[in-house]
């Protein structure tokens, strides 16, 4: 499937890591948050904690799990391997490129098609079962969301712990709306 079910959800990228600060591709390494990233997660928790989430879906990677635990210490978290960041193969731990080679075949890495398929499988499962879930994951997962809702994965990088409301079209011919989420 290459589409998202037309149901709203909120996406949150994890807090800052050393790789983010150094503008390096982290991909599959399970890296921790920086002290600043931990602080970011606690701060966004004051906003996120004002909502009773139908479901909090979290990548199994440490940086996403830690962000979710710090932001929502009282919520029940549900972990999904399908929300893990893309394995960038030989490009991991190298500088972020502009533009990123999303669709290129990566030596020892995960193809875009495979990555997109596993992310959409989880997102569509969530959208089938829950009303407006919160998804805590990675910039690559957000690129998949952009690709299927906007027609391409390019554009400005999503900020760390900057919640985005993903709303489906309200009428035929409209596009999905990806806007900063505020309670």
TrEMBL record:
UniProt xrefs under Gene3D superfamilies: Phosphoglycerate mutase-like
Binding site for substrate: 13-20, 63
A single GO cellular-component term on record: cytoplasm
Domain of life assignment: Bacteria
Active site positions, chain numbering: 14, 85
Pfam families reported for this sequence: His_Phos_1
Name used for this protein in its record: Histidine phosphatase family protein
